[in-house]
Specification:
Helices cover 35% and strands 24% of the residues. By secondary structure, it is an alpha/beta fold. The strands form three sheets. A five-stranded mixed beta barrel has the order 8-11-9-10-12. α8 (213-220) crosses α9 (231-240). The protein binds 1-O-phosphono-alpha-D-glucopyranose (G1P).
Length: 292
């Protein structure tokens, strides 16, 4: 059993599904209630024991880097105004020196390529990949559940969720060999298949724990779906050479916050989950629904 200490956050995307907001603001800093999307991903990673955070960014993402920077003027102003509660709120964005690294993906060649850009920082140890668009609400963080599954099974673990035929072609899809209701042993994985060709209704969601060999696979694979270097293909390569790859049906609800509808749904769900908003938000929703 090897501890998973490092997580790669591919955040180089243009966020085109969220224009016009993302013309000037990286989607990862859009707020869900009052915290940027990226903060949820970082908190989930910390809960899972991650200590090294590797961001694969691109031009136009400086707001994301600033969010994790120290803010001495803000801290001073809040101290002078005696606002300990507000100081508490900015604490989760504090990172120990050296815990966070940024590198740039110069060309948008696909998710697999973005992850591969982090190969030297990851080195020769298992690592996590978190796509911050996928926000997962649940009692125990999805990545923590995956680290536990990795302790049991080794190899690679991907987060898995059932989706309907109308949306299956948006995902990496699992070809199951066996399924105990929690862990799905894989025979293969295919990126964005047509609904008619999908090997199952089990989609891969943006959480992965990967063997360092996946980086080696990424060095040699050819572009796949949409002409991009696909992470799915590099993981599927592991299965081909007989290494274990499992899907974990995680406990929790996933929201696709890269899409406008998913983001709106997440906003409602996360607001209802907060004691200070719950009653008022529920009353507002009931009143609004009654008018439909
Ligand atoms: C990526 C992956 C895909 C996965 C999805 C989950 O696709 O390539 O396998 O199912 O994330 O959100 P994207 O959403 O970047 O097109």
């Amino acid at each position: 059993m090897t501890t998973v200490r490092k997580a790669v956050f591919p955040v180089a995307g243009l966020g085109t599904r969220f224009l016009p907001a993302t013309k000037a603001v990286p989607k990862e800093v859009l707020p869900l209630v009052d915290r940027p999307l990226i903060q949820y991903a970082i908190d989930e990673a910390r809960e899972a024991g991650i200590t090294d955070f590797i961001f694969v960014t691109a031009k136009g993402k400086s707001a994301l880097e600033d969010y994790f920077d120290s803010a001495p003027e803000l801290v001073r102003a809040l101290e002078e105004k005696n606002k300990p509660d507000l100081l508490e709120l900015i604490k989760p964005a504090e990172m120990p020196s050296g815990a966070i690294s940024y590198l740039r993906q110069q060309e948008a060649l696909g998710l697999g390529h973005a992850v591969w850009c982090a190969r030297h920082l990851v080195g020769d140890e298992p690592f996590a990949v978190i796509l911050p668009d996928d926000v997962i609400q649940g009692e125990v963080g999805c990545l923590k559940q995956m680290v536990e599954a990795h302790d049991e099974m080794g190899g690679c673990i991907v987060a898995a969720m059932e989706v309907g035929p109308e949306s299956i072609s948006s995902y990496g899809v699992i070809d199951p060999a066996s399924d105990d209701g929690r862990l799905v042993e894989m025979r293969g994985m295919v990126e964005k298949p047509k609904a008619a060709d999908a090997p199952s209704n089990l989609a891969v969601i943006g959480r992965y724990i990967l063997s360092p060999r996946v980086m080696k696979n990424l060095s040699v694979i050819k572009p796949g779906a949409n002409g991009e270097i696909q992470l799915t293909d590099a993981i599927a390569q592991e299965i081909k050479i007989g290494r274990p790859v499992h899907g974990l049906r995680f406990r929790g609800e996933r929201f696709d916050c890269g899409s406008k509808l998913g983001y709106l749904q997440a906003t409602v769900a996360f607001a209802l989950n907060r004691a200070e908003f719950r009653a008022d938000m529920a009353a507002f929703l009931k009143k609004t629904a009654a008018k439909l």
